[in-house]
Design a protein that fits this description.
Structural class: mainly alpha
Largest sheet: none
Order of helices and strands: HHHHHHHHHH
Number of strands: 0
Helix content: 40-55%
Low-confidence stretches: 1-7
């Protein structure tokens, strides 16, 4: 008995030093000294520390009566359970054959609404996309750089078509329409357009 009274304080001191070192490493990763001390104190309070034997158990697992009980995770309400059950009955998502494990909608699919199917790409579509990526070099060259083949060796692959800009005539036509309808900012301070400041001048032109 006397021996156990001597060993327990030594063991706790050892565990405290061990966890202090571990938490200190976390502190180097960004935690403050206060956070480290708070976590260590909480681990001691809840028994979430190794008990020091070969089993790998925590102090809580070795002596659960010495530590506060872990708060139970709140379960579902009665209404939630009833709603889920009603939905399962409606869709046939309930096991009706204990031997095979089949659900009602699997045994009698015609009695229940069909499950939405997520249409994937066909084999031909996948092959075509892969061939296009290989042709244009739109494939990662390596995992380190994150660059595509056409970025590392642009001369080996066809240039990507540039986005078509507006012609001079299109720009002039849009500007003329904006002037006609007053769809132009009147001043930089208010941010209002001419047709907002003087609606009577432009309503007849719309």
């Amino acid at each position: 008995m006397r021996r156990s009274k001597i060993i327990v304080p030594i063991l706790m001191s050892f565990l405290t030093a061990l966890f202090s070192n571990a938490f200190a490493q976390d502190a180097a990763g960004g935690k403050t000294r206060e956070q480290v001390k708070a976590e260590l104190k909480e681990a001691q309070r809840t028994g979430n520390m190794p008990c020091g034997d070969e089993s790998g158990r925590t102090l809580r697992e070795a002596n659960p009566s010495r530590y506060p009980a872990v708060p139970a995770t709140p379960g579902k309400t009665r209404e939630q359970v009833k709603a889920e059950l009603a939905e399962a009955v409606r869709t046939g998502d309930i096991v009706v054959n204990g031997e095979t494990g089949q659900k009602a909608n699997e045994m009698f699919p015609g009695l229940y609404p069909a499950k939405p199917e997520f249409q994937g790409k066909t084999r031909e579509q996948v092959q075509a996309e892969l061939a296009q990526a290989v042709r244009t070099g739109d494939i990662l060259a390596d995992g380190e750089s994150g660059l595509m083949l056409n970025q590392i060796n642009p001369s080996r692959y066809p240039a990507k078509p540039a986005a078509q800009s507006k012609t001079r005539e299109q720009v002039k036509a849009e500007l003329s329409e904006a002037i006609r309808t007053g769809d132009i900012v009147a001043d930089g301070e208010s941010g209002l357009k001419l047709n907002q400041l003087f609606p009577q001048r432009y309503n007849r032109n719309i």
